[in-house]
């Protein structure tokens, strides 16, 4: 059985476009999380607040973020996508946040094969309301757990691609040698 974090190809055009794995469909209230050892999805919890994920949520394979997990991403699309589906994405921005005082970058992408979104290239092209929804979700989704999340800033695709590059490199330096040896 292949492992979605380690065995799925990112694609040769990363960080401009890449494959990603969806963990949580948009509109969902279940917090699924990749079990790093088995490669299966684990139900982490039901969200305590009365909110649902505003976009498909997942990760970029073969990346290692500062928080010790694969790099998180939000994929904008007109439909929810089933968990553990692979799709092609293009980064249009970055949402920088603190989750319990730890840096936690979220790459904002569009689904390349969704005609309602594939013409977006920069986060500034999105309606302001869409960015407000993303911010509000992350500010609220842990509130009833007495945890703090602070959404700091939104940045464009260049900053997002830099974060993706760094996470790809960190995976090759820190995770790949352990898997190969």
UniProtKB/TrEMBL annotation:
Annotated SUPFAM superfamilies: Inorganic pyrophosphatase
Record-linked Gene3D superfamilies: Inorganic pyrophosphatase
Q: Which reaction does it catalyse?
A: diphosphate + H2O = 2 phosphate + H(+)
Q: Establish whether keyword Transcription is in the entry.
A: no
Q: Which GO terms describe its molecular function?
A: inorganic diphosphate phosphatase activity; magnesium ion binding
BP term (GO), one:
phosphate-containing compound metabolic process
Q: Which residues form a coiled coil?
A: none
Q: Briefly state the protein's biological role.
A: Catalyzes the hydrolysis of inorganic pyrophosphate (PPi) forming two phosphate ions.
Q: List the HAMAP family hit by this protein, alphabetically.
A: Inorganic_PPase
Instruction: Give the family, as the similarity comment puts it.
Output: Belongs to the PPase family.
Full protein name: Inorganic pyrophosphatase
- Source organism: Salinibacter ruber
């Amino acid at each position: 059985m292949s492992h979605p974090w380690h065995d799925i190809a990112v694609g040769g055009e990363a960080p401009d476009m890449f494959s990603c794995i969806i963990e949580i469909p948009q509109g969902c209230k279940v917090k699924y999380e990749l079990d790093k050892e088995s490669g299966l999805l684990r139900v982490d919890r039901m969200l305590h607040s009365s909110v649902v994920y505003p976009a498909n949520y997942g990760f970029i394979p073969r990346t290692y973020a500062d928080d010790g997990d694969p790099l998180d991403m939000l994929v904008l699309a007109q439909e929810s996508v089933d968990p553990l589906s692979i799709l092609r994405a293009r980064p249009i921005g970055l949402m920088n946040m603190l989750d319990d005082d730890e840096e936690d970058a979220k790459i904002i992408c569009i689904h390349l094969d969704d005609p309602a979104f594939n013409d977006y290239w920069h986060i500034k092209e999105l309606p302001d309301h869409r960015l407000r929804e993303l911010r509000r979700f992350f500010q609220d989704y842990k509130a009833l757990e007495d945890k703090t999340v602070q959404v700091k800033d939104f940045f464009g695709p260049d900053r997002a691609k830099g974060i993706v590059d760094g996470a790809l490199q960190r995976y090759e330096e820190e995770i790949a040698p352990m898997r190969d040896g």
